[in-house]
Design brief:
The structure is a homodimer of 199-residue chains. By secondary structure, chain A is an alpha/beta fold. In chain A, 42% of the residues lie in helices and 13% in strands. In chain A, the strands form two sheets. A four-stranded parallel beta sheet of chain A has the order 4-3-5-6.
Amino acid sequence: MSFFPPSLENLIDKFASLPGIGKKSAQRLAFYVLSLPEEEAVSFASAIIDAKSSVHCCPVCQNLTDGEICSVCGDERRDKSMICVVSEPRDVLSFERGREYKGVYHVLHGVMSPMNHIGPDDLKISELISRISEGGVHEVIMATNPDTEGDTTAMYISRLIKPFEVRVTRLAYGIPVGSNLEFADEATLTRALEGRREM
Amino acid sequence: MSFFPPSLENLIDKFASLPGIGKKSAQRLAFYVLSLPEEEAVSFASAIIDAKSSVHCCPVCQNLTDGEICSVCGDERRDKSMICVVSEPRDVLSFERGREYKGVYHVLHGVMSPMNHIGPDDLKISELISRISEGGVHEVIMATNPDTEGDTTAMYISRLIKPFEVRVTRLAYGIPVGSNLEFADEATLTRALEGRREM
């Protein structure tokens, strides 16, 4: 049912096409944008164009950047022999927030998901393999999410890497720091037991 | 902490400025927009510009339209002597969905809210009064939301309309159709009792 002016319906549809935004929320957002001063609405629109035109994948690690290569790959102090493989650019942010990791990254831009028809060729896996084949890499840390798809992707990639005789590790599973045993699920507890270490 | 390229940070900030969108959701939306094909991102941006430039308030009822007057005000079959006063354009949609109401509307674009510094002058109240003062209006139905702010706004406007000797009514309060008495709150039940009618 189209009740609003076509251009407004179109804007609502655009918002509704975003992930996690339903029809009602899309209406609310569209009304909000209409209520903005002219220049703010225009600057919203240009923010989309600007980001889309200037941001691209770092040719080395596939993280998002607006430079020739990203700030991590361009940093002389980072250890280029250690690659942390993550599924999304936002995962890089999570690691960088910790300020502990001194290696570099590789962003897959997704995980393998047969249900959603996402196979290895839809991810930046070949780019990772060619990085490793160039030599100088000692360890690859698989840091995809600890769920079925993340595990499958990590497993698949680790098999591809095996011929290069590079150390392949996986992030530790276990109880989150500061959490309560009472609320830990069984799978996590089992993994935490398996991964127990000497004190 | 600015980790992403500036143009991406800017786009994230724009999304985060929308109502109900937090920083994390804004990141997700910005990444999604970046993942769109070039032409779709551009068409998103132009949807904002188009809607903003073509949609304005109907000079009669203040509902959003891209024409000279809105489709309801321009419809010869609608009863111009009955005005339904709502707070938001989306409320018009709710009534139109019912296909029962044959009168016209007046959109206030908000409700009086001292907490948010929204007074009568911030709403389209003077436009309503001047519509009524032109004559030909027999009934004004106050259809603001049944909450404190909606009630206050309805009360305020009904006092302003009184001198014009126009019938002013308020939507009925009561149990929603199809709902369960068990879950009805006390205030609603009290109002439903007060508003009981002969069967």
